[in-house]
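Data deposition worksheet. Section B asks for the primary sequence of the deposited chain exactly as it was used as input, without tags or linkers unless they were present during the calculation. Section C holds the resulting structure in token form. Section D is free text for depositor observations; keep each observation to a single sentence. Incomplete worksheets are returned to the depositor.
Section A, Depositor: J.P.
Section B:
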Amino acid sequence: MNSKRDMKERIEFIKRYVEWLKKTPNEVWSAQQAELINALLENAKNFPLSKEEYLKIKERAKRARN
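Section C:
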């Protein structure tokens, strides 16, 4: 894993996305955002863990790293 390269790629992606947002009509990008958010919410219903189980696993992993 190369975190510097990953960060550079993320920043480039954000710059391209901002340029796209600036030249795309609000109706177009807001419809796409709504579709993405709705898909994420729908997919979250299928997540196999409860919020408490997920947080417990995350906390265990965090403690294992330290």
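Section D:
The radius of gyration is 18 Å.
Residues 59 and 65 are 10 Å apart (CA to CA).
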